[in-house]
Amino acid sequence: MGMLLSIVDGVRSVVSTLWYLQELRFALIFEDVSSLVISIMVEAVSCFVAKGRRILERRGKERREGEDGWECVGFGVGSEIWTDDIGGVVFDGGKLMVGLNSHPSWNIPLKNCVKLTVGRTKSKKLPPGQERLSVYSEILGRLGVNLEEYDADTFYWREQVQHYWELLGVTQTDIRNVMDMNAVFGGLAAALNAWPVWVMNVVPATLSDTLSAIYDRGLIGAYHDWCEPFSTYPRTYDLLHASYLFSHYGKGKEGCSLEDIILEMDRILRPEGFAIIRDQEPITRRIQDLTPKFLWDVKSRSLENKEKQLETVLICRKKFWAIA
């Protein structure tokens, strides 16, 4: 009986060993097959990318043949980036190229091709650094703004900045992030250049296109329609400046009421942040009645406008509050 048990245990041990070896064999085979498949996939992708690159280079050479000054500076699957010594952007099918006839837009569908200007010339170089703040952009001339108007606007905002800081009652370092919600030529940002602040210039998309002139001054900015939310990630603002913004949006369009814009300002303004509002008298009176409902403190002051006439300026401050 004992011998029979020994034989059974031996057979069981042999079967277990054989089963283990079989599992190990299958595992090794699976690992080899997996490695082979991965290698094939990597090679296939590499071949596909290399072929796509050769096709793009050949296509680019064919399309740009005969046009000097163009260079391919980047490419990817189905796209490539070309540049010349002028600047601007042209999108041609699957190709993004750089050229002179690029016009910024708002809510305008992209076109498949933008034609290049015939007989391109090199763009005029702008002066460096601080000097750019006083540059009169040729774009303003096309908008009907002459040099005298531009210089008067620059001087006007230099004066206003001094008045603003006196009315706010803060030091230079208390304000860091500023947004000019209707920047026009960027005069406020240029006047604040000597102050330790960062200014975002916003050109309403439905007003004159002056953003390029702001860029020519070495300032930053963006288009925006204040009927929509403004993307502020990742910052809030210490100071919002709205000069004759509400009167432009006072036509009853959905999402553009005075209350809607104030609500958006409240969202992007930090607690204890400031808002300076200048507008027509009926509008400033409405804002004075409305802002306490948003838990803003508001003070009414008078400053001269560009016509040397006194107008109401609202100095608002968002309260720091919490639910008890």
Account of the 3D structure:
With 324 residues, the protein is α/β, with parallel strands linked by helices. The protein has a domain at 129-318: Vaccinia Virus protein VP39 (Rossmann fold), CATH 3.40.50. Helices cover 38% and strands 21% of the residues. It has seven helices and eleven strands. The chain has helices at residues 2-64, 138-142, 147-168, 187-191, 211-216, 258-268, 281-290, and strands spanning 71-76, 79-83, 90-92, 95-97, 177-180, 198-204, 221-224, 237-243, 269-278, 296-304, 310-318. The protein has a seven-stranded mixed sheet, sandwiched between helices. The longest helix has 63 residues, at 2-64. It is elongated.
**CATH superfamily placement of one domain:** Vaccinia Virus protein VP39
The name CATH uses for the topology of one domain is Rossmann fold
Mean model confidence by pLDDT: 79
Structural class: alpha/beta
The count of strands amounts to: 11
Q: Give the helices and strands as they follow along the chain.
A: HEEEEHHEHEHEEHEHEE
Q: Count every helix, treating DSSP H or I runs of 4 or more residues as helices.
A: 7
N- to C-terminal distance: 85 Å
Radius of gyration: 33 Å
Q: What low-confidence regions span 5 or more consecutive residues with pLDDT below 50?
A: 86-103
